[in-house]
Structures are given as structure tokens and as C-alpha cells.
Amino acid sequence: MAHIKTGGTTKGNRDSISKRLGVKVYGGSKVISGNIIVRQKGTRYRAGNGTKLGKDFTIYAIKNGVVNFKTRLGNTVIEIA
Questions:
Q1: Interatomic CA distance for residues 35 and 62, integer angstroms
Q2: 19 sits in which H/E element
Q3: Topology (CATH) of 32-81
Q4: DSSP state at residue 70
Q5: Burial class (CB in 10 A: 0-12, 13-18, 19+), 31
Q6: Measured between alpha carbons, how far is 81 from 76 in angstroms, rounded to an integer?
Q7: How far apart are CA 70 and CA 80, in angstroms?
Q8: R_g of the chain, CA atoms, integer Å
Q9: Residue 3: what pLDDT?
């Protein structure tokens, strides 16, 4: 018989912290320079005109304007018009 009652149940009772990934600013919305548009793992969305890709694959605005999502050669590209 076990000498500690709850040892087995709490051992595997952990969970990782969520990373809050996803689209932060949707198409048609206004952005200013520096605003984060998408947080992602890998390049699900590609950076187009007026946007840059950060080292953690975050896409952010480098100029003021309106966000547009376009499909180009099977890839979703984010642009600022």
C-alpha cells in the first residue's frame, strides 16, 4: 500500500502556458507603424508590402494604413495599403 495518498494523481497534473497565437488585427482594420498583425509559429501567413516578419515569425506593420489579406500562389499574404 502507498504511504503517500496523492502522489500518483498530482504527478502528471501539469499544463503548458498558452502562447496567445493568432491574428490580432483583421482585414480592413487600420494600423499604425509597429502594430502586431499576426503571431504565429512558422510562416502560415507571409509578409507583404508594408509589413515585416520578426525572428519569431510575428508579422508587424512598418507603415500606417489598412490591413489586407491576399492569396498569392497558394500563400496568404498580409499587406498594408
A1: 8
A2: none
A3: OB fold (Dihydrolipoamide Acetyltransferase, E2P) (2.40.50)
A4: E
A5: buried
A6: 16
A7: 11
A8: 20
A9: 74
The x, y and z cell numbers of residue 44, run together, are 502560415
- Three-class SS state of 24: coil
**Look-up: residue for cell 496568404?**
76
The beta strand positions in the chain, using DSSP E, are 22-23, 30-31, 36-39, 45-47, 51-53, 59-61, 65-72, 75-80
Residue reference for cell 496523492: 6
| 80: amino acid identity, one letter | I
Type of residue numbered 62? I
pLDDT tens across the length of the chain (81 residues): 667 666 566 667 788 999 999 999 999 999 999 999 999 999 999 999 999 999 999 999 999 999 999 999 999 999 999
